[in-house]
């Protein structure tokens, strides 16, 4: 009897389970890129307003994560990578996750609009809609281009940050969007290369499942080659500079080198070393994106101090 009571207590939702619903690792990327978009914008924002804006953008990103987990609970129970999430593990019900996600969505969008401007609030609402409805409910289970088109949702945050400061869109904010947008497919496809069995079992049509690993490797290289000139070219915009340019040259050279290594590998080689090269590329891709946005942030700091060169 005591054992049963212990199990029931262990399955009760804790504060940490609701934090997990927000996908904090994904949220950290949302927060960072949105913050950079806000800081590099030409219009200064009061620090308190900026803090509040980032807080509500973070809540909006978390709301997207909770709604994604609510809808994907069935496949999360199947995939080894996700089966211990709060809903499939039985610690949070699907109904609770839905209510939690919808409440945070409404609060974040309305409060961002009130704290900054209506355009930014509407942009956040559109981003949540795109991630939950367009990507999660439609594209993810319908097409191997799911992560290509759906990746736009993860690329919107720097544009939202820019919109908080300016109330609109510009070439620079679109360039930051494209940087994340073109980075997303090779990042996730490298994950899919060594997690193929999970996607196969859950019947999620990732490129590795529908077209095979060979085609996926070719697409990773193709996207790396397309991404590089865009990433380097941002150095010549108003938000770029020599520090960013140097960072982009180094990081894209390494990114292309990694993509070439992945492209040249056979499945025999990959299985022999347990996809070590693919895993290394996946984790490096996180550093790649962080380095670009950190360099943009540094350029903004140098300009603020009157030390900008370009």
From TrEMBL:
> Chief localization class?
membrane
Q: Does the keyword Transferase apply?
A: yes
Q: How does it sit in the membrane?
A: Multi-pass membrane protein
Q: What is its EC number?
A: 2.5.1.141
| Pathway per the UniProt entry | Porphyrin-containing compound metabolism; heme O biosynthesis; heme O from protoheme: step 1/1
Q: Where found? A: Cell membrane
List the Pfam families: UbiA
Transmembrane helix keyword on record: yes
List, in alphabetical order, the Gene Ontology terms for molecular function in this entry: protoheme IX farnesyltransferase activity
Which EC class is this protein assigned? transferase
Spell out where the chain crosses the membrane.
Answer: 26-42, 48-71, 97-115, 121-139, 146-165, 177-199, 220-237, 243-260, 281-307
Q: Which UniProt keywords apply?
A: Cell membrane, Heme biosynthesis, Membrane, Transferase, Transmembrane, Transmembrane helix
List the InterPro entries: Protohaem_IX_farnesylTrfase, UbiA_prenyltransferase, UbiA_prenylTrfase_CS, UbiA_sf
User: For this protein, what reaction is catalysed?
Assistant: heme b + (2E,6E)-farnesyl diphosphate + H2O = Fe(II)-heme o + diphosphate
Query: What family does the entry list?
Result: Belongs to the UbiA prenyltransferase family. Protoheme IX farnesyltransferase subfamily.
Q: How does it assemble?
A: Interacts with CtaA.
Q: What does this protein do?
A: Converts heme B (protoheme IX) to heme O by substitution of the vinyl group on carbon 2 of heme B porphyrin ring with a hydroxyethyl farnesyl side group.
Cited NCBIfam families? cyoE_ctaB (TIGR01473), PRK04375.1-2 (NF003349)
Other information = Carbon 2 of the heme B porphyrin ring is defined according to the Fischer nomenclature.
The protein depicted here goes by the name Protoheme IX farnesyltransferase
Q: Which organism is it from?
A: Thioclava arctica
